[in-house]
Design goal:
8 helices; elongated; mainly alpha
Length: about 200
């Protein structure tokens, strides 16, 4: 007698996982997660260079770091595609029900194929984005502003404890706008030594 779990697995295996619309939706969701991870990594890059290493803000270096992260993720997806192809080859030879989470059988082929298709679609999107200046700039600028917020908040903690003028936080956004403008100027050569991020935060 077939259990309810087995019946559910059969229904799942019969679903159309090759539907291009479904594949694209899953790839888009995965891309959103990758973009969030890139922004977080880029923010940490800025904070580390500024707070630990005492270096000036360098948008060229930050963009290069984002590209390196992108290439790393693309490499991971290509490795995943290779693994999924191998798993599908093995699963075709195995009947019955799985005994553990990575024990793939014939019934798992549609799911494995879907995962492969999503990984391929995502890798294709990410490869195109490595040369998309608008996308890279959006990651860089968002990460920069987030890093500046955290750096300034870290510098404000001892000031708050000491008791500073209440207008300091009220005027904070104005100072942030000024700092963003200053950083934009830093991306336009020539740049001189007096433009130091540390002096502005």
């Amino acid at each position: 007698m077939t259990s309810w779990r087995q019946k559910a697995a059969i229904r799942l295996a019969r679903r159309n996982f090759d539907d291009p619309h479904a594949i694209n939706e899953l790839a888009d969701e995965a891309l959103m997660l990758v973009s969030a991870a890139l922004r977080l990594s880029a923010k940490n890059f800025v904070i580390t260079r500024t707070m630990r290493d005492g270096l000036d803000y360098d948008e060229v270096a930050l963009t290069a770091a984002v590209k390196a992260d992108l290439r790393g993720i693309i490499g991971e997806r290509k490795a995943e595609i290779g693994r999924l192809v191998t798993e599908q080859r093995r699963a075709r030879l195995r009947r019955g029900w799985a005994t553990r989470h990575d024990d793939y059988r014939r019934l798992d082929l549609p799911t494995l194929r879907r995962r492969e298709n999503v990984a391929r679609a995502l890798a294709k999107r990410l490869t195109a984005l490595t040369n998309d200046a608008e996308y890279l700039q959006s990651i860089v600028r968002t990460a920069r502003d987030s890093a500046l917020h955290e750096i300034i908040q870290a510098r404000l903690i001892p000031l708050r404890q000491a008791g500073v003028d209440g207008r300091y936080e009220i005027e904070r956004e104005e100072r942030m706008d000024s700092l963003r403008a200053h950083l934009d100027l830093l991306t336009q050569p020539p740049a001189d030594d007096e433009h130091s991020l540390a002096r502005w935060v």
